[in-house]
UniProtKB/TrEMBL annotation:
Lineage: Bacteria, Pseudomonadati, Pseudomonadota, Alphaproteobacteria, Sphingomonadales
InterPro entries in UniProt: DNA_brk_join_enz, Integrase-like_cat_sf, Integrase_catalytic, Integrase_recombinase_N
Domain of life: Bacteria
Gene Ontology annotations of biological process type: DNA integration; DNA recombination
Keyword field: DNA recombination, DNA-binding
Gene Ontology MF, one: DNA binding
Tyr recombinase domain: residues covered: 160-407
Organism field: Hephaestia caeni
Protein name: Phage integrase family protein
Length: 413
C-alpha cells in the first residue's frame, strides 16, 4: 500500500474550564503572613511578644506585593541577626548602623537598603515598641551609603512605540517590533493583546494581571476605556480610567474570540499540546520483522494516517506577574530570531535582560516626552502622585520638551 503524506494540522481550542490545566497553589498571601509571624518570633526571642491587633490590621492594610516585600526584608535582617547574635528586635541604633554596613558589604542598592529599614520600622510598630530607624546616626549611615554608591536606580529598558512619535528613529526593541514577532496562533493573539494594552494604559504588572473583561468599555469610534480599580498609588481603590486605542481593542477582541473568554480575567494561561503527523502503514507480516523481534499482533496491525494536531487549553485564572515577564522576554527573543532587530551578541543579551513588564510603562512615558508633553500631564496620565518618577523615566527626553527647549527652539536655529 503506498504511503499517504499527511500535511494538514488539526487545531483544537478548549475553552476555559474544558482544559485540565494544573492549578497554582493558592493562599500565597496567607503563607507570607505566617512567615512574618515566624520571623518576628525568631527575632524577638523571649524579649517581646507580637501585638495581634497591630499585626492583623497591618496585613489588611497592605497589598500582597507589600506583604511579600516585608517578609523578604525581614528574612534578610534575620540572617544578619543570626550572624551578629543577640536579640534582633527591638533593635538599637548601633545594630541598625551595623545592618546598613552588612547590606553595603553585600552590594545591595541604596533603594533596597532604604526599603528594608522601612520594613524594620513596620516590625517595631507590630511589636508596639519605639523604633530607632529615624535616629540621626541611622539616617547619616544611610546617607553615607547613598553618597558612596550613588542613588541612580537601574531602569527597565523602554518599549517605545517605534514609529510615528518624535523625530528620531527608535533603535532596538520597540512595541511595533514585538507585535510583529507575535505568532498568529492563540498564544500569539494573547501576547499581542497584552503588549498593546499594557503600552496604551501604561499599566504596572499588578494592574495588568488584574485586567478583567468587566472593566473594559468599547466606544463608538472603536477605542475603549479601561477601569483601573486599584494601583500601587491607590490602595484605597478610588480607581481611574485609561484610554485604549482602536488597535488595542481589535487585538483584545481577537484574543477573546479565539479563547472564548466572556467574563473574568482577560489574560490567561494557554497550554499547548502538539502531536506529530503519522504516515499510513499496511499491516506487517512475519517476514517484515527482524529475526529477533517479538511478535506483537496489535503493533503489527495496519494503521491509518494521522494528521499533526495542536490543542490549546485556556486557563480560568489570570496570568501571574512572572508569566507576564516571561512573555515579554520570549517575544523579544523571537523578534531577534526573525531578524526584526539589529542586535547581536552581548548587545542582544543586555537588551533582552533589561526588558520587563515595566518596559511598557517606561516606553509610554518616554514617547509622551518625545511628543512634547510636560511632566505634569504625563504624571496624571500614568497615575503618579508626583512628577518626580515621570522625570526619572524620561531623563534623556524631558530636556527636549521643557520650558527652555521650547523657547530656544524658536530663537536659536
Amino acid at each position: 500500500m503506498p504511503k499517504r503524506s499527511v500535511s494538514a494540522e488539526i487545531v483544537t481550542i478548549l475553552a476555559p474550564g474544558e482544559a485540565p490545566l494544573p492549578q497554582r497553589r493558592s493562599g500565597a498571601a496567607q503563607d507570607r503572613a505566617v512567615q512574618l509571624v515566624e520571623l518576628l518570633q525568631e527575632l524577638t526571642g523571649e524579649g517581646a511578644s507580637l501585638v495581634e491587633l497591630n499585626f492583623q490590621k497591618s496585613i489588611e492594610a497592605r497589598a500582597p506585593a507589600s506583604i511579600k516585600a516585608l517578609a523578604v526584608d525581614l528574612d534578610c535582617y534575620a540572617r544578619f541577626s543570626a550572624e551578629r547574635g543577640g536579640i534582633g528586635l527591638p533593635a538599637d541604633e548601633a545594630r541598625l548602623v551595623a545592618y546598613i554596613d552588612y547590606c553595603e558589604a553585600r552590594r545591595l542598592k541604596p533603594a533596597t537598603v532604604s526599603r528594608r529599614l522601612s520594613s524594620l520600622a513596620v516590625a517595631h510598630h507590630l511589636l508596639d515598641v519605639p523604633c530607632p530607624v529615624g535616629a540621626v546616626v541611622v539616617r547619616d549611615a544611610l546617607r553615607g551609603l547613598r553618597r558612596r554608591a550613588g542613588v541612580r536606580q537601574r531602569q527597565a529598558g523602554p518599549l517605545r512605540l517605534g514609529e510615528g512619535i518624535g523625530r528620531e528613529a527608535v533603535r532596538g526593541f520597540t512595541l511595533s517590533v514585538l507585535l510583529e514577532a507575535c505568532g498568529r496562533d492563540v498564544a500569539g493573539l494573547r501576547d499581542a493583546a497584552i503588549l498593546s494594552l499594557g503600552y496604551d494604559a501604561g499599566l504596572r504588572v499588578s494592574e495588568l494581571v488584574a485586567v478583567a473583561v468587566e472593566l473594559m468599555e468599547a466606544q463608538e469610534d472603536g477605542s475603549g476605556l479601561l477601569e483601573v480599580p486599584h494601583s500601587k498609588a491607590d490602595q484605597e481603590g478610588q480607581g481611574a480610567w485609561v484610554w485604549l486605542s482602536p488597535d488595542t481593542m481589535r487585538r483584545v477582541a481577537l484574543w477573546r474570540e479565539a479563547a472564548s473568554i466572556r467574563a473574568g480575567a482577560l489574560f490567561r494561561r494557554v497550554a499547548v499540546i502538539r502531536t506529530k503527523p503519522r504516515e499510513a502503514r499496511r499491516a506487517l507480516a512475519i517476514e517484515d520483522l527482524a529475526y529477533h523481534a517479538r511478535v506483537d499482533r496489535e503493533r503489527m496491525a495496519a494503521r491509518p494516517a494521522r494528521a499533526a494536531t495542536v490543542t490549546y487549553g485556556i486557563g480560568e485564572r489570570a496570568l501571574t506577574p512572572a508569566a507576564m515577564r516571561l512573555i515579554i522576554k520570549r517575544t523579544a527573543l523571537a523578534a531577534a530570531d526573525q531578524g526584526l532587530v539589529d542586535l547581536m551578541g552581548a548587545d542582544l543579551d543586555h537588551a533582552i535582560d533589561a526588558l520587563s513588564t515595566h518596559s511598557l510603562r517606561v516606553g509610554l512615558t518616554q514617547d509622551l516626552f518625545a511628543n512634547g508633553e510636560d511632566a505634569g500631564p504625563i504624571a496624571q496620565a500614568l497615575r503618579w502622585t508626583s512628577t518626580a518618577t515621570a522625570l526619572r523615566y524620561g531623563r534623556k527626553l524631558a530636556p527636549s520638551s521643557n520650558a527652555a527647549a521650547r523657547m530656544l527652539k524658536g530663537v536659536r536655529k
